[in-house]
Amino acid sequence: MSSKIQITINGKVTAVKPDTSILQAAEESGIKIPTLCYQEHLKPLGRCRLCVVEIEGKDRLVTSC
After folding, report:
1. 3-state SS of the chain: helix, strand, coil percent to 5?
2. CA pair distance 8, 46, nearest whole angstrom
3. Is residue 59 very low, low, confident or very high in pLDDT (cuts 50, 70, 90)?
4. d(Cα 12, Cα 61) in Å, to the nearest integer?
5. What confidence tier does 57 reach under pLDDT thresholds 50, 70, 90?
């Protein structure tokens, strides 16, 4: 049995697998985050820093991938 964690994105609560990216979690919740370099078949590297999100409690933006 796969355990899930509960997260909140834009006030919407959802449960996802612990290894889910912010981008994937948002997508699964029906929330669109614009992306420029995301390709489903490529490993997410987060090097370009173009797709960033704000996380409550963090003092800087983080990559959504």
Report:
1. 10, 20, 70
2. 21
3. very high
4. 20
5. very high
